[in-house]
Amino acid sequence: xxxxxxxxxKGSNVPLDTAAVRAVLRWTPGPGVPDxxxxxxxxxxxxxxxxxxxxxxxxxxxxxxxxxxxxxKKRVADGLTDTVEADLGALDPxxxxxxxxxxxxxxxxxxxxxLRIVLYDAAAAPERELALFDVTAETGEETxxxxxxxxxxxxxxxxxxxxxGYPTGLVGLATDFGISVDEDAEEPDGAPxxxxxxxxxxLAETAAVDAVEAGTxxxxxxxxxxxxxxxxxxxxxxxxxMPDRAPSYGYPQPQVPGPGPxYGYPQPxxxxxxxxxxxxxxxxxxxxxxxxxxx
Length: 295
Known about the structure:
- The chain is mainly β.
- Helix content is 8%, strand content 28%.
């Protein structure tokens, strides 16, 4: 009976019914597309590598146990592949999870438009696909990304699609998980050990998810494995300028001052300045020297 591949969304997980897996990164090369390298970080219960030997990558393609290893790249009909294998059933009980990562050489993941991780059952003959996850850049500045992780759950293992990007490349990613980086080695732009998300926050979120899956987490958190979409903050509207004068709308209005005094001459009454009548202007009485004739 044919088994359908489980297409995954970021943050989702799927149980694994096999003791050995093969994680294959696949992408299409071309002009302007950087090379992609697969790597793995073997972590203890504290979410960190126990030693530098727990970092499996192109310069150290095999874990000391031989149970996690990086295979040579292959050219396939639809692109290139880079592969990490893990014998989960034989791993030491002190190993809690295996992080599956990718790093770019010669550019950012903005130019890798079709990166995908496909998980296979390496113990089956012929091998069968278990899950696939299309990895996309969030900011376009990532030079390393955690594609997914294999982690213990009870007596078995599960796979989670992660998709967390790092702008600090393979050096920054490895440093955040406790790997000592040679100070003389060439480092990418940015401070080593600084990820797109704080590693403590990422580990705390993973621990919360694990607690809920194990049945020990507090209720009311919903599906913590689901992708969290942060709603954009609406812009603050601009405050309109205050009018020079208050609007009318039937409210009493301030009186408008009339023209200045005219040096003793009677002034016209302006609307709103009162209702008293203006007294008739009369000439002052004349002295006797100006009345009826001559002195």
